[in-house]
Amino acid sequence: QVCAQLCRRPCYCPWVPPRCPRGSPLVLDGCGCCKICARRLGEPCDFLHVCDQSQGLVCDYSSASAGTGATCNFEDDEEGCEVNGRVYRDGEIFQPSCKIQCRCLDGGFNCIPLCQEDVRLPTPDCPYPRRVEIPGKCCPEWICEAQDQHLLRDARAVSPLPRFPCQEWGTEWSACSATCGVGFATRVSNQNRYCRLETQRRLCMVRPCPALPAAFPA
C-alpha cells in the first residue's frame, strides 16, 4: 500500500543524478526508480530515502513515535564510528593512511602510528641527521646531511613556507601518561604546514603528586 501511494509509474527521474557527499553512495530509492544519495548514520530516512545498506544501516523507526522521525541506525544496534564520511563497525580495524592504524571502539576510535617515532641524535659520523620522505616508501627515513647542505637548508628555512591546503584530520588527545605530576599526552594529526600525519605530544598534569613523608631518623 505504501508503494502504491508513493511510487509513480513510469519513473520520472532527473537527467543528472545528484552529487552525493563523501561516504554516501548512489542507490535506488525505495520505489526502485531513481538514483538518490544513500542516507548515512544518524541522518533522517523514510520509505523513499533509504539508508546505506553497504554500511549495515537500516531506517530505525523506534524514535519516530517521539516526534523526531526515523533515522538511519545499525541493524543490530551496535555502536560504530564515522571517520571522514565512512562508518566502521565496533571493533573494526582500518587505516586512514599507511602511517596510522585505527580501531573503532565504543563509538570512538583509537589510533597507533605504524612508523617508528625514533629520534636520532647527532654523532661524530652523522653530525646533521635529517628525516626525509623517500619516494615509494610510506615512512620517512633518517639521512646524514653534509654541513654545506645543512647550512643551505637553514638559509631556505628563513623564508616562510606556504601552507599546503588539506583537510584537517586528527585524533583526540590521549589520557595523561602520569596519574599525578607532569606527564604527556599524544595524538596523531596532520595539522602542520606539510599536511603530514605525525605524532604530537604536549605536557599534562592530572593533579599534583602528594608530598612524600619525612624520613624518621635511625
TrEMBL record:
InterPro entries: CCN, Growth_fac_rcpt_cys_sf, IGFBP-like, Insulin_GF-bd_Cys-rich_CS, TSP1_CCN, TSP1_rpt, TSP1_rpt_sf, VWF_dom. SMART domains: IB, TSP1, VWC. GO terms for cellular component: extracellular matrix; extracellular space; nucleus. The keyword Secreted applies. GO terms for biological process: cell adhesion; positive regulation of cell differentiation; signal transduction. May play an important role in modulating bone turnover. Promotes the adhesion of osteoblast cells and inhibits the binding of fibrinogen to integrin receptors. In addition, inhibits osteocalcin production. This is CCN family member 5. The gene is Wisp2.
